[in-house]
Amino acid sequence: MTPELKLQPLRCLLAILDQGGFHAAAKHLHRSQPAISMAVRDLEERLGQPLFEKGNGKALLTPFGQWCAPRFRELVAHHDRVSRDAQAMASHRAGRVDIAAVPSVASRLMPGILASFVNEYPGIEISLQDGHSELVAQMVVTGEVELGITSLWQPQEALESTPLLHDEIGVVCREDHPLAAHQSLHWRELTGHALIRNGTSRLLEGSPAEGLLEQSALYISNMISLTAMLEAGIGITTLPRLAFQEEHDRLRFVPLSKPRLERRIGLVSRANVSLSPAAAAMQRHVMAYLEDRKT
Amino acid sequence: MTPELKLQPLRCLLAILDQGGFHAAAKHLHRSQPAISMAVRDLEERLGQPLFEKGNGKALLTPFGQWCAPRFRELVAHHDRVSRDAQAMASHRAGRVDIAAVPSVASRLMPGILASFVNEYPGIEISLQDGHSELVAQMVVTGEVELGITSLWQPQEALESTPLLHDEIGVVCREDHPLAAHQSLHWRELTGHALIRNGTSRLLEGSPAEGLLEQSALYISNMISLTAMLEAGIGITTLPRLAFQEEHDRLRFVPLSKPRLERRIGLVSRANVSLSPAAAAMQRHVMAYLEDRKT
DNA sequence: ATAAAATGATCAGGAAGACTTACCATGACG
DNA sequence: CGTCATGGTAAGTCTTCCTGATCATTTTAT
């Protein structure tokens, strides 16, 4: 019923109009002149009406042709737009990645990563949000974000993860605290000191130091508040090194050596679902960036 | 640089999505299944990115594919429209308009409009379908129809709209309902009465009467069912006047005066795309018809 | 007026592409 | 463990499309 108008003949028609003749159009399209003739005839047959006035030697549109031409032009333009956009999307020159990361990574690692990424892929839109590790994992599972950077808790069915770096756990206290002078600490040395729990405290769970958590009466989730409490000398806390702001001159970070604890930070994405081109580029970039940085 | 996307492979892709599998698509397109596979592979090669997830047995789009699919669908729809229009024009049927309208307009306004239109333009084919307001807008955007008559929700980028008329919102209840005797109503007077929500209830959102919706336990989308519920005295509802069938002798329409609410009905078409002659004629006709009718 | 040039149309042959038939690999299910 | 579904692959056939040569007609130049 409705004939299938192929794009090439339409392009021929438009080229004839733009270039002002069959021969010129042929040259413009890098085709031979008969090809143009045939394309036009094919179109005319499909539509059941002549597009060009016959008889006189010149290329002149029929009224029907005049009616068709702008629509054909629009259609071809539409095609080119779609094709170009898809091409741009496929080759990472456009697109969008949504990322979630735990706060420490978001504030200390991502700025550098994103700076070099936007430099390399200027067309890609990026959205970064932070949340605690389980929230990050959940956002990846639900598809709210495509990539997550978070603690590798335990292998989850729906997630695919790549380890990125190890982050050592240590004790944070004020510089004048008795523990501040140590080079490293055994967990027993913490007993008796007021311990403030925070969002990363669950990293102690399952280790010999787990018992310490039960003695702790304070839980502070906000990092700013936590820092203020530590500076006020209200107690000590445990943090991964990455989450400790090393610039703080009144606070000290002392690694826990027995047990030596660390969280493994990794890049997670949904399993069995391939990433968008933009997200794949981001994934490669993150991994390359951290690989470089290790050396 | 920009690959030439042929239409047939695009159709294959869409058929796979719509029919839910390669085999089903093949049957639908009267092709063999390998042809579909090859078409998809051809597309993927041109774009440089896979469109379908490999490995698992099911036909699942990659994110890139999900991004592409709606654009491809739009492009194919555009082609079909151009092809159909040209075909119609070639066969002296002078044209064709596809219109979508919200149900109230389709049932109460369009009969009169179309009656006079076919009288004036006997050669033009008309197709009218109805759907809720967002569906109408979407059909215009995708090019499934050229003209839409719908609630002007908020100005949309891809759409061009012309206001046609204002449609007052009111309360509909049975004639023996306590509210039926009023000439107009303040929204507070509705509290305590069982309110049935319907497809037009979102018109109350953002107004003082919005709170009423939360008390409502019933949502009925079908107008016939809604009328039956009202006649049974199960509750009251709000409707634009145009959606209320004035012939109903057991139901009453009482305007809401505080707040006075109205939906603006308008004629929408795609922006930056010229209408077919037939659609342009229809657009002029609709506007003239309603201008006449106001007086 | 006549030759020269340019227009588009036509035809046969060949290269490229698309479709089909037949067969293969894999995963779900009883 | 076999059966049925999925989609992927390979070789052969057929169609489509393009080219090169040639023709008919009109326009232009001498």
Automatic annotation (TrEMBL), chains A, B:
The keyword Transcription applies. InterPro entries: HTH-type_LysR_regulators, LysR_HTH_N, LysR_subst-bd, WH-like_DNA-bd_sf, WH_DNA-bd_sf. GO terms for molecular function: DNA binding; DNA-binding transcription factor activity. Residues 5-62 form the HTH lysR-type domain. Keywords: DNA-binding, Transcription, Transcription regulation. This is HTH-type transcriptional regulator CynR. One of its GO terms (cellular component) is cytosol. SUPFAM superfamilies: Periplasmic binding protein-like II (SSF53850), Winged helix' DNA-binding domain (SSF46785).
